[in-house]
Design a protein that fits this description.
This protein is an alpha+beta fold and about 140 residues long. The chain has a single domain, classed as Immunoglobulin-like (Sandwich). Helix content is about 15%, strand content about 40%. Strand 1 and strand 2 form a beta hairpin. The N and C termini lie far apart (about 70 Å).
Length: about 140
């Protein structure tokens, strides 16, 4: 009986700690919802959103990349950022491996695809920023 009670208490503690940890995670605040960028001629799609991962964090750009075509084994891009006041910045996403059907989605909560996440550069207004893209295949 004591062993059964110990098992039930242990299971409850694990369940409680898991639920508590999940409730402590905060959803990102969207400054700009997902925006589709120009599709590459080789059928590669990129979209971006601007978020604050926590109330005290800097604004970040998170990106979603989808390889529809599978033409190139590596893809990267140069990004031109410009806000409503005319402030400009450049960012480069280095070549990364991809194959047809791959979808990479950056997020606040994971280091997966961290190459597709970056802080909005100093001097750029995150709420009015627009991004244009030039694709790079390394060839």
């Amino acid at each position: 009986m004591k062993l059964k009670l110990l098992f039930i208490m242990s299971a409850f503690c694990v369940f409680y700690n898991t639920m508590n940890a999940q409730s402590n995670q905060t959803e990102p605040k969207y400054i700009q919802n997902w925006t589709q960028l120009e599709e590459a001629k080789f059928y590669f799609d990129v979209s971006y959103a601007v978020v604050k991962c926590s109330p005290t964090s800097k604004a970040k750009v998170i990106m979603n990349a989808f390889n529809e075509g599978g033409t190139y084994p590596k893809v990267g891009f140069k990004l031109a950022l410009k806000d409503a006041a005319g402030n400009e910045a450049q960012m480069e996403i280095a070549l990364f491996e991809t194959k047809i059907g791959d979808m990479f989605i950056a997020s606040c909560d994971s280091e997966d695809h961290a190459n597709l996440r970056f802080d909005v550069p100093e001097g750029i207004d995150a709420s009015t920023m627009k991004i244009s893209i030039i694709y790079n295949t390394g060839s």
